[in-house]
Specification:
single chain; 878 residues; alpha+beta; Rossmann fold; 8-stranded mixed beta sheet; 7-stranded mixed beta sheet; 38 strands; globular
Length: 878
Amino acid sequence: MSMHPLVVATGSSKVELPCSQPVAPLETKGAAFCHPSMVRVSRPGKDSGYPPHFLRIDQRERKVRYGLLTQKDESVPLKSITVEVSISGFIADVSTTLCYENNKCNPVEAVFVFPMEDGSTIYDFHAEIGKKSIDVMIKDKQKAREDYDDAISSGQQAFLLEKTEIPDVFRLSVGSLSAGQKATLSLSYVTELPVEADDALRFCLPTVLCPRYTPQGTTSVTKGVPRVPFGSIPYTLSLTCHLVSPNGISNVKSNSALMPLEYLSDDKTEAKVSLSPGFQFDRDVVLLIYYNHPHQPTAIVENGLSSAASGSLMRDPVIMISLYPEFPELTEQSLSIKGEFIFLVDLSDSMLEKMNGDPDSDMRIESARDTLLLLLKSLPLDCHFNIYGFGSDFQHLFSNSVKYSQMTMKSAMKEVKSLHANFGGTNILAPLRDIFGKACIPGYPRQLFVFTDGEVENTQEVINEVKKNASSHRCFTFGIGDGASTALIKGMAKAGSGYFQFISRKDRIQPKVMKSLQFALPPAVTNIKLNWHLPNLVKVAPISETPHVLFNGQRTVLYGQLKTKANKNAVGRASLHYTLCGKEYKSEIRFGLKIDKHCRLTAHRLAAKVLINEKEDERFLSSMKDKSETIKKEIIKISTEAGIITSLTAFIAVHKEKHKAIQQPMVITHIPLASFPSCSQERISWESYYTSCIRLHPRLRGGGGGYGTPPTTLRGGGGGYGTPPTTLRGGGGGYGTPPTKLRGGGGGKPKDKVDEGDSADMPEVRSDNLLKLVSFQNVDGSWNLEDRLMTLLSKTEQEVLQKMPAEIKDKSVWATFLSLLWLHGFNSNRKDEWKFVALKAVAWIKAQTGLNLELCLQAGNDLLGCQMDLQTLGLQPS
């Protein structure tokens, strides 16, 4: 191995090539590798995890062209993508067909790097050239790559489908496609659909692949992907979805234009919907499917393959059950739960993007600010909290989590309202290590909330960091906008025994975040046990682990392998037992053991993926090399038996009829994706930063130095706008270097102290009146009777005081009662956002003695024009 220049002999001449990557000795593939413009250099070691690299040598310019770089006005061989989705219950079976045609005069190698929803299980891949079907095999990934290279260097046509180093990004290589030749490639996968906050099932077809943040010293998968402007993608997408549910299909919504929903049965248990023509590839395609009874438990018993090995997973029947644990809803008592809440917020440049395509819509950072404000006001009374911002670097509001109080909350709100997305890249690993490196507060369980648009390359390393610290916290994640890494968002939540949610174009982030806060507040469910009750002689081998965490009303899917067949009329039961607050609960389903003989092995493949995931976790935790190698072989064995690819295996197809070696230089074409100029790994220019600061934060206060160069402080003095910022709230010196604290700087106030009378200096919440009202609330749940509250209620001070019952001596009681009425009377459609705020207000009002609630209700209804009752407000006498 050497870092010296690479010397390549080409015919009678030698070319010296600068090479920044360590390489193994040059391999020319012997006589079969005949064209002088193509040589192969591979990194040493079959288990290095990197594919061999072809170097395209231009002898005139004497430079190496790595990978797939032809980017002029050449036509792209991928012409169309057709997607057929079949959704039965909560399982989606997806078939994707990609049509290629080489319009060039030379043979083509086309490489398509594309995202896929994490958790998807690819179980089928086949290729056709003309009407000739090409045999496909699953192999060890390294061996598959070598077979692919051998085939195309020998003039044969080959196809390789593999996972990249990023778990939710795949690479499809087509080589070599002869001039004028057509090819059709099809891949199929199955996936479980997650449940949204409003009980919809969410199907996502990712089309957006943003550049991923790549830590120094690692290789980027997405950096070399060519980009074209929106509307210029040279291939088309069509999508049709077939829906089946015995409980009835009530509606389908999407962030993209759909054709009208077509029911295929009178009882609305079967329907079809299609994507409208003209999709522009500027967003992930998201379908929200609504069933009439979404929480209905289900069970499927699926027959195996008679041709599979005896005793194997694919040979025996598999049972798949879904349960919906139920326990009491949130009450005021939930607000007494102790906890440490840490909010980790992405402040990278890509958070400046819009939440949707509307130019007037919120930017991602604006939605994140609003959500943080709502979270701060919704926290339980006895808790600690902290806020981290991260990008290329990270900062925290407090050096350690602080007690939740009026003073600390007010301090936090000031900083939240001033947050900007100006931290460059997306290095999430560093702040995670800082958080986990600090001791937990005894008696206050740690709850971590992560907000990001999820564009990182070291996904597995981040997930592993969460997994290593899973015993000390729960992790709740939110993927914001199109292109968010599903592997990162889902993986962190799973590793941290939490819950994940995605916020796409038409979603409001606040209801989803409040749903996760509701999951975080109750005490953890304990003593979780799964019991199978089956007829005599029928044995089941559990495939899924017993769940480590349960959330109210959220689906739990479990798999089991039936070792002996039962009578077709036999009935079995599965029950999930758990304890909450000392009380025992149970979720149960009864099912028939009659086997469906017309199945597509969906449950088997999903069960195999569960087994593989568990083996991969075991391999990660293993410190012994021999054991790790044994587990690796087990993973490859399950993968090949089940026909599903993993990080260790790949699909390979070789058309062996053509043996003539390449006679012309092969054109390397990388299939382009849509351009995302602000999804950059690099920090935006300081000129752009300065412009965005003026637009987002008009209260910048400088010092007398003029506006000649980028700013030096957001609030500071005397130096003008000299260089990049040093603090978000600083003083005295201007903006010297990237920020180091969310609140700090030589001239700022102490970070744990805030004046009670400086509310006028606090930036205003944007025009959302609900968020304004929430921002006025005190930590204890009360409101003060002040001018800004009365303005929001559209009442004068005289009107408010005239209607206040004489028995109320504390104006805060009246202000709190009116605020509670206003929330229920004028914002009932957004109750998911303010219910925690209302619970705190109810608890505070109930703690006041001597109140005539009926009298207060009548006076409040008269003043605001409402018709509420005490039961609706949660104030009914106990």
